[in-house]
Fold these 2 entries.
Entry 1:
Amino acid sequence: MTRKKKYIIEDQERLSQSKLWDLQRKYYEKVGVNAWRKRAVPHVITSNVFIADQYVQLVYAFLRDWESEIDKDHPVYLIELGTGSGRFSYHFMRRWLDRTEQFGDLDITFKFLLTDFTESNLKFWKTHPLMKEMVQKGIADFVLFDATQDTSLSLVNSGEILTVDTLVNPIIVVGNYLFDSIPVDIFYTENNQLSESLVLLESDYPEDHELISELLDSIHLSYNNQPIKNDYYDNPIYNQILENYRQEFKKTYFRFPVASLNCCANLQALSKNRMMLITADKGFTSLAAMDLLEPPQIAVHGSMSMMVNFDAFEQFFTLQDGRWFKIPFQPNDIGVHVGVLGSPKSDYSETAMTFYDTVTSYGADDYHALTVALHNHYADLTISQMLSLLRMSRWDSVLFEECFESLLMKVQETTDEVRADVRLALHHVWDNYYFIGEDKDIPFMIGAILHNIGSFQEAIILFNYSLQMHGMDPSTLYNMGMSYLYLGDTNQALGYIGKAADSGQFPKAVEAREKILAKLDETK
Ligand SMILES: C[S@@+](CC[C@H](N)C(=O)[O-])C[C@H]1O[C@@H](n2cnc3c(N)ncnc32)[C@H](O)[C@@H]1O
């Protein structure tokens, strides 16, 4: 029994047409990149270097499958849908450039298009210094793109417009935590009779409530089931999938990802049926997992989402002679799936093999589960074990954050050889770091360890980044001063330690200043 709600937001509506999606849009428009800064909207699992590296491998494989048929005079585009902060995109592009610069094995011009439906996210990418670098290198461009309806892409930087007439090569589409966020319809089936489930939306707040998360959180969905006839949708493939469900399910409520399939169909048309979709989301991967389910509710985490029906994607791809690669087990959290359409001469042998070697063998979900299990246990690990984990993460800053305290303590009592390895690891983590304005001060953390291993000059550089990104902090000023002191630059040391002391918030700095001044007096 749910508590009685005060407001009816709508009644007897198809869920895909519901006002819920307008609220979702408003939420993202309003909060912009703050959705990820405060980790209100989950993203660590889909925006780390490990997953980006696996996607790079998958894209490489797809391009090798198509290589002999690609027109080298034109770029291959990767379209990331619902990009969000751009952290995944940055990691992908860095890994891509590292790989192509080192091995140069693909003679293809590659462009990564960051897309989203809110201007606020575009504004963030446009001003991010690391994204500016990627634009200058010619690999990144930005597009305002509504995945539920747009059929062409206008690139902000190059001015190009990609349409079915201008696009030459196969495309790659990435959608992470996107398909759980866009409109679905709900159906009910029992005794081989299919009904649409029209929604009643009730909430504790009126629909114009200022705090959208609070409003979403209070929404309860109930359904009224109305029998439907054949040909519910205009698209015969969708109707075929519905018919399969009618025959297969015993009795269940199920989601039909109408907006997601429309998006795939639009991009399929744009690419002239030569595309790869890579998607990571929480969802159902098999028909069996979707039978005997209760009426679905939304999950709220800042924005809102619903589990994805990946089986419908699988049917959409395979009914059109495409292929759908999925893991043969239940993930802990998210599943990564790959769909391909079109028939290269290679018959996707490279893509199949790479999916097996990456996602199936040890994927982003496994990596995330391991890091969650290790949380609180880093103090028990040796430096070498932490370096192994960091290496496995491909030098990810979130994993580094987890190791930080333990590394900071342990580097003080280790050999020069291990310190050298730690120093190199810190460089890799910093090179990968994409700042989104979160509270965690990664440059300070890296600087502090560099200081502890005696790399004072480098520590100062990182402390400077910390001051630029996180503002004046007495602890950073003090540590910077101490690095100068160890370098023998007493003037600079006194300057920074003095500022920390004058803040009145850092007694250690007051003590240190007195000691330095006393020593200076002695030597006069
Ligand atoms: C849950 S976030 C995922 C962000 C990122 N891909 C990640 O993995 O962290 C959903 C993103 O999709 C965007 N989005 C939601 N609906 C969209 C639509 N119809 N078209 C394009 N982007 C959309 C939101 O602005 C937001 O950036």
Entry 2:
Amino acid sequence: MKVYIKDLEDLYNLAKRFSKCLKGNELILLYGDLSAGKTTFTKALVSSIDKSLEDEVNSPTFTVMNIYETPEFPIYHLDLYRVKEFDISDIVGNGLIIVEWANFQDFSDYDVPKIEIKIEFENTGRIFYVNGNNIENCLKS
Ligand SMILES: Nc1ncnc2c1ncn2[C@@H]1O[C@H](COP(=O)(O)OP(=O)(O)OP(=O)(O)O)[C@@H](O)[C@H]1O
Ligand SMILES: [Mg+2]
């Protein structure tokens, strides 16, 4: 499904709805060019789950993985831009995993939600292409 986002408020609204569709053990794959908004979406999603974590969310480009602890489950925030691949076998199913630059690794074994972010013409406009039956059905309901 295609979701039009006109500004950061829209983005936070989508993230809030998205967060309500999660149990906390999912793998979410993020795609999109440089500065498309992958980290910003992750920040919005993490803060929708636990507002107190908002300031902790930053780009894991150099650390490869950030871990944010919520009362219910850990959130693993990965960025494959530099490393190109990362073994997630130890963490998969044990928390929420969000992967930026998921195009660098072969995730075809996983039937999981995918989000591609495209920059629109205006400064803050984005198109979010959300793929995944469960998540799409949940977002539509
Ligand atoms: N609707 C929007 N959604 C997401 N980001 C937006 C939006 N409007 C403006 N922005 C801005 O665009 C920039 C996106 O940067 P961000 O670091 O999130 O992108 P990224 O895809 O993670 O980049 P990188 O490729 O470096 O990982 C931020 O400055 C953010 O504030
Ligand atoms: Mg980023």
